[in-house]
Specification:
The chain has five helices and six strands; from the N terminus they run βαββαβαααββ.
């Protein structure tokens, strides 16, 4: 199954459903079920003490790292410029969603739905870009 690695706290925000758009500087032809992996990097920790992050992330140090933590459906990937032209997507962009991503020109909006947070993290090493996980899943 395809996996996308994200830094924390963004990985957790995705699987709890607070972040429905992942912004990237690259796109993929893949659409469908996508596992979310929380990478081992801890650079995002400083943000969790500020709004709107602190509303959802109560204790950064208790978040799982280097683990698959949930899944989503990757519905589409569109250029940021196209996202802003769509009334439907403009209306769904909350101030929080805008704070959770980088909506600069030239980037891509990965539109995510149906988030599921796994009860137990699946500890595994991740990698850049989309990658394959063939192990067991326990939701």
């Amino acid at each position: 199954m395809k996996v996308l690695s994200l830094l924390q706290p963004w990985a957790s925000l995705v699987v709890i459903g607070s972040k429905k758009i992942e912004t990237r500087n690259w796109r993929s032809a893949y659409r469908g079920e996508l596992l979310i992996h929380a990478s081992g990097g801890k650079k995002g920790g400083i943000l969790t003490t500020e709004p709107p992050f602190k509303k959802y992330i109560l204790n950064f140090d208790s978040l799982p790292f280097s683990a698959i933590i949930g899944k989503v459906i990757l519905d589409d990937i569109v250029p940021i410029e196209q996202l802003y032209l769509s009334d439907a997507h403009l209306n769904t962009l909350t101030l929080e969603e805008k704070a959770f991503g980088d909506y600069a020109r030239g980037r891509y909006a990965w539109l995510l739905s149906d988030p599921v947070e796994f009860r137990q993290p699946i500890f595994t090493k991740g990698t850049l870009r989309l990658w394959e996980y063939s192990g067991e899943l326990e939701e």
